[in-house]
Amino acid sequence: MKSVLSALIFLLGATIAHAQTAPFDMSGERPKGAKPIMPETLMPRVTAPQTTTPQTTSPKVVTPQAAVPQVATPQATAPKTSTPQVAPVLPAQNVPVVKQAAATPAAADFRRYVVPFTDFRLQGEYDRKSWSIFLTPEQAAAPAKFNFAYQNAVVVAPEASQLTIFLNNRPIGQQQIGSPDSASSISFDIPRGLLQPGANLVTFEATQRHRTDCNIQSTYELWSDIDPAKTYLSFSEQDAQRLSSTDAIRAIGVDGAGKTEFNLVVPALAQPGTTKPLMRLAQGLSLLSGMPNETFSFSTDTLPPPGPGKMTVLVGTPAELQPLFSAPAAAQTAALATFVKDPRTGSTILLVSGPSWQAVSGAIDTIVSPTDRDPTVRRDILITQRWTAPDAPFLFSDTSLSFSQLGIDTTEFSGRRFHTSFNVAIPSDFYANAYGEATILLDAAYAKNVLPGSHVDVYVNGSIATTKPITATGGGIFRHLPIRVTMRHFKPGLNTVTLEAMLLTNEDQACAPGTTSNTTPRFALFDTSQFHMPDFARVAQRPNLAALAGTSYPYNRGLAPVALFIDRADPDTVSATATLLGQMAVVAGHPIDVDLIASPSGVGNRDAIFVGSISQMPTTTLSQMNIATASQASWRPPTAGQNGQSETTVTFDEWRSRIGGGALQRQISLFQDWMRRNFDISLSSLQFIPSAERVFTPSNLNSFMIAQGASATGESSWTIVTAPSAKDLRAGVEAMTSQADWPQIAGHITVYSSKTGKVDTVPVSRFDFVMTQPWSFTNYRLIAANWLSTNILSYAFLLIILFLLLGVATSGILAKIGRRG
Questions:
Q1: Integer Cα distance of 624 and 628 in angstroms
Q2: 402: closest CA among 424, 419, 425?
Q3: pLDDT tens readout for residues 657-670
């Protein structure tokens, strides 16, 4: 008995000793595939952010005390997980709780990326960019942080340079710019109640100074790059991901590259009668989201993976969707458009269903109808706030707008080169690029040390429009100083006007130490300044791809449905068509009603759009657009390994030497370039009759083409969107509808190369006037003034005829007077 009792005591002691030395194990609670984490390595991983973040995540915040509370301490902001167990500082021996927190990934926070650009750079001594981000009520109510990462040029002086972030015009954080070697990640707490359901204004403002140089040229070396993939709002509450109504379509946002993607899964994509409602749905989704870089992707049998800036849309009857998703019972009896959860991934899906496709079309109308607008009703603004705020006001006639109305605040500036911009929109029938002048009435002031030779420059869409020198010494105040701006660079749609002040001082010429960081204001721009647009000629031109890119003209004004020809309903072609129509709807301000046709004979006198690979394009349509029909067989971009560029260069050089005419011809070409650059006079303006349009053959270097011309009857406009293949068509449309390339569409033909990213245009040689306004003497006078300004010989000939008539009339009068005497 004693021996048995001794053995039991021994075994119990060994068990206790083993329990005291072995760590606590929760391997059964770990996710599958997770590596075991030992206690001695676990705690540093949790506490590491608390020891490294004070330098980067707790910058000084400049905010009104009444509106924004003090920034939280680093210990409170450092944890990246929403698990409650991690928030307090845990004792070292509390290993079980720490292990449970580590098993919950920090990436569980919901992110909303906020930068709608592929690349985002703040440059110069002062730069400010604003846009809006749409939030759902759940996101606006949830606690949130603003996170971003940036890297700046080496020459930026950190002691005199600051980056400030504003939300709804209130500063939430200010960061000294000092990250030249690598990107720095910054995080700010957003005060409760600052975010609101709907649109929220985001503003980045940078003030930068050079480390060593004081001249104006050095200011072009200053930049700070914001990383879109690391700039986002983070929400710790899972409710922030919930989508409860179709208004949440506006909150789709962007991904880490500034893009927005709608993935439409339509099992019945190839069936007749489905394409038209799908095109209407695509346009409605584009208008609701309003993002600048939207693409549409169609598939028939797979659900794409979810992600930021992406929305999956299931479209079809319950029977068609059954292999992919079990639709609610309500879809069996009535039209249904609602958000549902994918049971496999837990992501939110927009379901558009009904017992028949007629019911599905009705469900689509419930989504799209809020975006409908009568084409005959004039709109006052061009909506741009998702990528540049505020929205651009439309200017149709004599109009004056103050800078405060255009989004420019009163600003004092202490540097060498000040620049700011504003946007205005011009209607599609704008015709004043040869004679018109707008005016900036400048309210500004400059300091006593600003020297003569300083000047104020005005740019329109990136091209210099005018320069106003500063000639007086001793400082001065401008009160409605008129600066005339030529309108040759204005175009239909969105126009950006940039004002730059180049300021010279003796201090900068000496460039003593500390001069670069001087904070004494040299220049002030007041928001009482005005931009005045005079009356201009209103008449549309055909063809005019710039008007298509600007406002979707003529398809935005038609009362009859636009004839739409699609060569085949494969996913690539339908995706390209939806992306194109979505972008056109955004600039038009409403969905464009389309009617699918099987052949050009069904167009009649309507405006039409032809989309497809060039081999499937009707030859009559290509001929009408002055596109070589031989391109259907010859247009083939070079495959991998082929050097099409060198072959093209050699051929070009051969032809240039063949027809160049030697040194004399080159001198004539240089003289023509000089005349065009300095006096805006070209050979086309020195002819009585415009030259005929040449037949265009796309180069094999090009992978996409869009062309416009008159219809066979000459009463409507036809537009061709084509490429060598359906895949090239989809890639080309996605590239050309991007924020960077869409404004470059102009002329009669625009081509794009996917290899080089280059966009080329063929200018219009001959065009027809299309009257858009009721008859008036004033408008016809302005039209005549612009036409004569672009046709110099005709103007000179008409002037000579008038002088001759005046001479004959004067001679007759004098003769009669003489006889009477």
A1: 10
A2: 424
A3: 555 555 666 666 66
